[in-house]
Design goal:
Elements (H helix, E strand, L loop, with lengths): L10 H14 L6 H12 L6 H12 L3 H16 L27 E6 L5 E6 L2 H7 L7 H12 L7 E10 L3 E2 L1 H9 L10 E8 L10
Antiparallel strand pairs: 1-2, 3-5, 4-5
Helix pairs in contact: 1-2, 1-4, 2-3, 2-7, 3-4
Length: about 210
């Protein structure tokens, strides 16, 4: 392939494809080394042969006898244009939950009075009625409804993002888990993995004066 003529696939797909070529040449490379190789390519111009060559030689070889094997594998990898075609990303389907009808604002209804004029009336939901009614005027059924509503009440404090990361369906790309999964599928990065900052409740400190 002429100098500068390669169209590099995504960096992780290229790293996985090259790792497969190296294994075929009996040069064993681990996931950690492939991750470093992918990161090195991202900092360089992947269309330049020399940049890709030295990025791989520095990160994927550890012994002098590895260099000859690496050179042969790199020639094969470069001449085939990277070897792996990027997989299309799976489509994500979003589901929108239905609103809770019991807490919606009162509905407006239009009725006609005796003179034929239109009059707008508001119909309040049971929750709206209980919210504005005096406790002393509650019926036993309304007290039971209030207890049910209080049982469903969930108190939550402010949240903050932790420095720790956790697996997620989307977010920051996780090259380590992506490459580890690719090793189980014959070197193909079938599924890209992501991670995000873990969200946890803020610590609440109560200062109580009992004097």
């Amino acid at each position: 392939m002429p100098e500068g003529g390669i169209q590099a696939p995504p960096m992780l797909d290229a790293a996985v494809a090259f790792g497969r070529v190296l294994r075929g040449a009996d040069l064993r490379v681990g996931t950690d080394r492939l991750v470093e190789f992918a990161r090195a390519i991202e900092e360089m111009d992947p269309s330049r042969r020399d940049d890709v060559y030295w990025a791989g030689r520095i990160t994927l070889t550890s012994r002098p006898e590895d260099i000859e094997v690496y050179d042969r594998a790199f020639e094969l990898f470069w001449e085939t244009g990277g070897g792996a075609k990027p997989k299309p990303r799976p489509k994500i389907r979003l589901s929108v939950p239905q609103p809770d009808r019991s807490v919606m604002p009162p509905k407006k209804t239009v009725e006609k009075n005796e003179s034929g004029e239109e009059a707008v009336r508001l119909r309040y939901s049971p929750v709206e009625v209980l919210r504005h009614k005096d406790f002393a005027l509650y019926s036993p059924e309304e007290f039971a409804e209030l207890q049910r509503l209080l049982a469903d009440l969930r108190l939550s404090g402010a949240l903050r993002k932790s420095r720790r990361l956790e697996p997620a369906p989307r977010g920051r790309h996780d090259p380590r888990r992506t490459l580890r999964g690719a090793m189980r599928t014959g070197g193909e990065a079938v599924r890209h993995r992501f991670r995000k900052a873990r969200v946890q409740p803020r610590r609440v400190v109560l200062l109580c004066d009992v004097s």
